[in-house]
Design goal:
This protein starts with 10 loop residues before the first helix and ends in a 9-residue tail after the last helix. Strand 2 (55-56) and strand 3 form a beta hairpin. The longest helix is centred in the N-terminal third of the chain and has 14 residues, at 31-44. It has helices at 11-15, 31-44, 97-108, 118-122, 125-131; strands at residues 48-51, 55-56, 62-63, 76-79, 83-88, 112-116. It has a 4-stranded mixed β-sheet, with helices on both faces. The radius of gyration is 16 Å and the shape is globular. The protein has 5 helices and 6 strands.
């Protein structure tokens, strides 16, 4: 069974903590479909989500228009009670040097940064990360 990109997660199931019932066995056909599932889950859990989509250039190449140091910027920025930067990768995806540089800079600045592969979805890591509320965390 695969997740149709037009099929949205059931908000009641997510809010009742049943999102992974049946979803753990889903196979994502590509990184874009996996990313849509992460965005859907984040929205249901009341996150504001920013994703900058690539555009087709006159040369026929797809790229995400960025300026300054934007190359390698994480795929998703999620904001709720805290800010998360997430790089989304398919099963065989690799982090580029530019993406690694952004990850290092964000982590050095104390930001919450993740590189998420489909295995993080299947084992519930993404869901538990997005459910966590910083207001309920105790300071260390």
């Amino acid at each position: 069974m695969s997740l149709d990109p037009l099929v949205r997660l059931d908000e009641d199931a997510v809010l009742s903590r049943d999102v992974n019932a049946g979803l753990r066995q889903l196979g994502f056909k590509d990184e874009a479909q996996f990313q849509l599932a992460v965005i859907d889950l984040a929205r249901v859990l009341r996150w504001c989500v920013a994703h900058f989509r690539p555009a087709l250039r006159k040369s026929g190449r797809w790229s995400t228009p960025v300026a300054a140091d934007g190359a390698g910027f994480p795929d998703l920025v999620l904001v709720r009670d805290r800010v998360i930067f997430a790089e989304i990768k398919g099963d065989k995806g690799r982090v580029s040097p530019a993406q690694d540089a952004w990850a290092s800079a964000l982590e050095h600045a104390g930001a919450e940064h993740y590189v998420w592969f489909p295995t993080a979805w299947y084992c519930g890591t993404i869901e538990s990360t997005l459910r966590r509320d910083s207001r309920s965390e105790t300071p260390s």
